[in-house]
Amino acid sequence: MDESAIETQKKHEVACFFDVWLAVIPLLLSLFGIIMIISASGYFSLKTFGSPWTYGIKQIKWLLVSLISLGVMYSIPISFWRRWSAFLWVMAILLSFVALMPFLGMSVGGSSRWIRLGPFSFQPSELLIFLMVVHLSKVICQTDWDPRKAFARTIGVITVSAAPLLLQPDIGSTLILVAVGMGMFIMKYGWKYPLMLLFALVVPMMIFIFSAAYRLRRLRAWLNPWQDPLNEGFQVIQGLIAFANGGFWGVGLGRSLQKLQYLPAAHTDFIFAICAEEFGLLGTLTIVGAFALMTWRVHLLWLQANEEYLSFLIFGLWLSILIPFFINIGGATTLIPLTGKAMPFLSYGGSAILATWMKVGLLLRCSADIKGRGTLNMRSSF
After folding, report:
1. How far, in Å, CA of 260 to CA of 251, rounded?
2. Which is more confidently placed, 118 or 79?
3. Contact present, 312 and 23 (Cβ < 8 Å)
4. Total of domains in the chain
5. Using the 8-state DSSP alphabet, how is residue 62 labeled?
């Protein structure tokens, strides 16, 4: 076989051979999410827009756009991301600062987290987290650095990335960004330096939390929601009632009582609570099981990675999906204070589902590269 034929064969195999489960599980979760968004938002949507389908139709459109982005991400070689990671990361930071500009940024609930372009709006923090992972994968895998220098570079990337998010302010996205960055560092260098930093930041973090009234309200609502059940603790209590109503089997699809404007943000931050009410403990365990299965498949892919950059990229991308998953469940079940982060694949929101599917597309590309090379290596040995 001549060289041109071998090269064509390589391109074909890399383009077609990937772990199908990495696409099937997110697609099933997204389709189930659309069903739950229609169920959770139907009453509110009917009162507001005159149709119970408004939010569901919007989410379907965003899913179609996300699937197109999946194809685009899958078609881009990994070498492109490695070469242009710094430039793309800086562009994402600048875009996040744009959200602070009065004529382009949109303020919601006292936070300027959105950019409005005509009838559309999006949250640049989602793109920033994604591109920080792409760039930090390149930074950390530089093997000529000692741990202290690597930690300093990692902290530098995280700090610069977090600057526009803290100014917005978007504490939830900042926590995800820091957790993902530290997780990627720990993967190679261990816990020593991150733990030292954590102990050093305990006092500043306490000052930061107590410096804003809305953060204090969230903290009090988390510690004792029953102290003010009609105000600060209202949303937390209504979420817990949804879990209690669902029991083991659930009340059935579309039969939730809490979505009848008892539970605020039922189709966004508290979509997991509505799933628990309508499908019970069995339904919530199924969702957790789907994420666990996806985590296992990503772990297998990570073990097969034959380049350090690929291993960091795979780990960071999935970590940036998994951490919001745990934060959302933790907030809904009162394991942690509410942060306002959406459930990946399930919650309503265009920016979140688009960024999440972009990450899935890059994971599929990593899978295709790894498995394609493995196949080629096996064939070349014959």
Report:
1. 14
2. 79
3. no
4. 1
5. H
Which among 339, 373, 366, 369 has a CA at the least distance from the CA of 111? 339
pLDDT level of residue 107 (50, 70, 90 thresholds): low
Asked which of 11-20, 110-119, 165-174 is least confident by mean pLDDT, the reply is 11-20
Q: Return d(Cα 182, Cα 190) in angstroms, integer.
A: 10
Q: Is the pLDDT of residue 2 over 70?
A: no
Are 276 and 240 within 8 A, CB to CB?
no
Domain region containing 314? 3-380
pLDDT tens digits for range 297-334: 999 999 999 889 999 999 999 999 999 999 999 999 98
Q: Which residues pair with 117 in a beta bridge?
A: 120
Q: How far apart are CA 223 and CA 337, in angstroms?
A: 8
Of 342, 336, 372, 293, the closest CA to residue 113 belongs to 342
Lowest model confidence (mean pLDDT) among 109-113, 128-132, 220-224:
109-113
What are the E-state strand segments in the chain?
A: 105-108, 111-117, 120-122
**Dihedral angle computed from the Cα positions of residues 25, 30, 32 and 33, in that order, rounded to the nearest 10 degrees:** 140
At 368, list the tokens.
Answer: 């295709």
Token reading at 108: 């919601």
Spatial strand order of the sheet with 105-108 comes to 105-108, 111-117, 120-122
Give strand pairing partners of 108: 111
Give the 3-state secondary structure of residue 114. strand
The full DSSP string for 178-245 is: HHHHHHHHHHHH-SHHHHHHHHHTHHHHHHHHHTSHHHHHHHHHHH-GGGSTTTTTHHHHHHHHHHHH
CB 161 within 8 A of CB 93: yes
Residue type, 80: F
Per-residue tokens: 257: 């009582």
Q: What pLDDT was estimated at residue 373?
A: 58
pLDDT number for residue 290: 97
The answer to whether 374 touches 301, Cβ cutoff 8 Å, is no
Q: How far is 212 from 98, CA to CA, in rounded Å?
A: 24
Contact 155, 298 (CB under 8 A): no
Packing angle of the helix pair 21-49, 350-380 (nearest 10 deg): 170
Environment class of residue 332 by beta-carbon count within 10 Å: exposed (0-12), middle (13-18) or buried (19+)?
buried
